[in-house]
Write a structure and sequence with these properties.
Oligomer: single chain
Largest sheet: 6 strands, antiparallel, barrel
Shape: rod-shaped
Helix content: 25-40%
Distance between the termini: 135 Å
Radius of gyration: 39 Å
Structural class: alpha+beta
Order of helices and strands: HHHHEEEEEEEEEEEEH
Number of helices: 5
Length: about 290
């Protein structure tokens, strides 16, 4: 009977033959390039395997670069909105300062700017009734908010804080019937008091001879020291003068986004430090 388990060459002999064959192939390939075409064909055949092996790394890199979590997008969007609000609130003051600088350049010497502390607050709730227009904000006494604090948005004055708790505060809107603000006409400097009626603003007790027109921009005058000077308040939309009445009926529309604002800006009065006061004072001259 034939032996099924015939013994072949020893392992040492197989290793020697393999090494010799490998050396011969390397010499032939190095000297004459006999294996170049075979190497190219092998690489071509194995390229799909290389692609499949590298596919997980490619997918991971694509996911890192293109897939952003929803929370990251929300945080980035909120941060960008806050930055835009601050920048627009700073830039809109230029509306009043341009004409003011033209009239008072010799007295002021340079434009004034708001240098106090500012804080962005989010609107949590709207309390709009027939006789009350108020907003609930997510900043309170823990953040330094105080009663009477002015509130603006990117377009102008919104109102002022009337109630403060530890973590929230309630503000009254500019067009509330209980709210009034001293204003001045940006065109000619005319001063007046603008009072809300629940929707718009009325300028009270101005004679028929008053120089005021539709389209005039009303700015905060700074009188009463409640609101900083030069912030847009409202734009005149109607001027009615009747000879039978001693006063003109003047209606203005708030420039602020009273009905749509989701974020507002709380302002603090500027309190110069001892160093800043010393820098602003002129040096004494020797006698």
């Amino acid at each position: 009977m034939k032996n099924l388990f015939t013994r072949g060459p020893s392992l040492v002999l197989q290793l020697i033959i393999t090494l010799v064959l490998a050396c011969v192939l390397m010499v032939l390939d190095y000297r004459y390039g006999y294996l170049t075409s075979a190497r190219k064909a092998t690489a071509t055949f194995l390229s799909p395997l290389y692609f499949l092996a590298n596919l997980p790394n490619e997918l991971a890199a694509w996911a890192d670069n293109n897939i952003v979590s929803r929370n990251d997008l929300i945080d980035e969007n909120r941060q960008l909105k806050d930055e835009v609000l601050i920048l627009k609130a700073q830039n809109q003051r230029l509306i009043g300062l341009e004409s003011e600088n033209a009239r008072l350049r010799s007295l002021l010497g340079s434009s004034r700017s708001f240098r106090g502390k500012r804080l962005i607050a989010e609107v949590l709730n709207i309390d709009s009734q027939r006789f009350s227009n108020e907003l609930l904000l997510n900043k309170g006494s823990a953040d330094g908010v105080f009663v009477g604090q002015p509130v603006v948005d990117s377009e102008g004055v919104m109102g002022q804080v009337v109630e403060v708790s530890l973590s929230t505060s309630r503000m009254i809107l500019l067009n509330d019937q209980k709210h009034a603000i001293p204003v001045r006409n940006d065109r000619n400097g005319l001063r007046a008091i603008a009072q809300g009626d629940g929707q718009l603003l009325f300028l009270r007790h101005l004679p028929n001879t008053t120089d005021i027109r539709e389209g005039d921009l009303l700015l905060s005058s700074g009188l009463g020291e409640k609101f900083p000077d030069g912030y847009p308040v409202a734009k005149v939309i109607s001027v009615t003068k009747q000879t039978a009445q001693p006063y003109a009926q003047i209606i203005a529309e708030p420039t602020a986004n009273i009905n749509t604002a989701n974020h507002v800006l709380l302002l603090w009065p500027y309190e110069p430090t001892t160093n800043s006061v010393a820098e602003e004072q002129p040096e004494a001259t020797e006698k």
